[in-house]
Design a protein that fits this description.
Elements: E1 11-14, H1 24-51, H2 58-87, E2 90-93, H3 94-127, H4 132-135, H5 138-163, E3 173-174, H6 181-185, H7 193-204, H8 207-226, H9 231-259, H10 267-270, H11 272-292, H12 295-315
Helix pairs in contact: 1-2, 1-11, 2-3, 2-11, 3-5, 3-8, 3-9, 5-7, 8-9, 9-11
Length: about 325
């Protein structure tokens, strides 16, 4: 229960990045640029995969869903940061904060499961190449993607229910980019041990579980690559995994840094940049990683640009 002089909070006041007014316009422009590139890059990736028959493979099927989730993932947080900078602070209701927390968790967890599914796809492609078409059927791919969304939804329901059964009181100012768990727990009026344990246990089935799938997949992949006799063959096979390894390293690296280390009570101030990294920068980088490192995607992009030029010349 809250103390006699404490009022239960019904809204939160976000003040992220407002301490330096001279940086407000540059930061607003920077984050807006990131958001526009994220929307264009991921939307373009989805369109390419849906329209080019050469990209109708399981890997690109997973990638199209990853790009779609990244669009929504960035859209959950970036507009709020832009509004905070534009208004020099933003009031968010309890209900809106809960909704943002729910969708952020849903999309973040789904991202983790999709990356794990993509690791399994790479394992089958490298270690079971003759059975790849038989194993990675359309039904299997749809089932893996559906499982990722259902698992993400389950994690979001459990974590949101645990976090928002707490009462929040005291100063309603939050110096963070969105309604995330660490700043909310600091405002809890009562002992949050039980809720934190529920959240921790549920988190084990997201980040560590997905990491185990990814690591085991790549242990088998590395073993298969080592057995390839020619250096050229090893390099060619490994190159098919490079984009996924880069995406996994960036995303899981920042998540581990934020959520799987000891909270010393000061890390909200220190880690706002890290939160920007995994909510804004990584969703922007994913389409660049997969396009710059992938021959099929680059060829599809060149074909699309050529078609646009032809269409413009016909219309002009």
């Amino acid at each position: 229960m809250a103390g006699k002089n404490q009022t239960i909070l019904t809204e939160f006041f976000f003040i992220t990045f407002t301490e330096h007014l001279e940086l407000r316009l540059p930061l607003f422009s920077f984050f807006l640029g990131l958001y526009v590139i994220t929307l264009l890059g991921n939307s373009g990736m989805v369109i390419l995969i849906c329209t080019d028959s050469r990209l109708s493979t399981p890997m690109y099927f997973f990638l199209s869903h990853l790009a779609s989730v990244d669009i929504c993932y960035s859209s959950v947080t970036t507009p709020q940061v832009l509004a905070i900078l534009f208004e020099q602070g933003l009031v968010v209701s309890y209900e809106c904060c809960a909704a943002q927390f729910f969708f952020f968790t849903l999309l973040g967890a789904t991202d983790c499961y999709l990356l794990a599914a993509m690791a399994y796809d790479r394992y089958v492609a490298v270690c079971r190449p003759l059975l790849y078409v038989t194993i990675m059927t359309k039904k299997t791919c749809v089932s893996l993607v559906a499982a990722a969304y259902v698992a993400g939804l389950s994690a979001a329901i459990i974590r949101t229910a645990a976090a928002f059964t707490l009462s929040f009181c005291g100063d309603n100012k939050i110096d963070f980019v969105f309604c995330d768990l660490p700043p909310l727990l600091k405002l809890a009026c009562v002992d949050s041990y039980t809720q934190e344990m529920v959240i921790v246990v549920s988190a084990i089935f997201v980040i560590p579980a997905c990491m185990v799938v990814i690591l085991v997949s790549y242990l088998f992949i590395i073993g298969a690559i080592v057995r390839i006799p020619s250096a050229g063959g090893r390099a060619k096979t490994f190159s098919t995994c490079i984009s996924h390894i880069m995406a996994v390293s960036l995303f899981f690296g920042t998540l581990i840094f934020m959520y799987m280390r000891w909270n010393d009570g000061n890390y909200l101030q220190e880690d706002r940049i890290v939160s920007v990294m995994y909510t804004m920068i990584i969703p922007m980088l994913n389409p660049l990683i997969y396009s710059l490192r992938n021959r099929e995607v680059k060829e599809s992009m060149r074909k699309a640009l050529k078609s646009i030029k032809v269409l413009r010349s016909e219309l002009g």
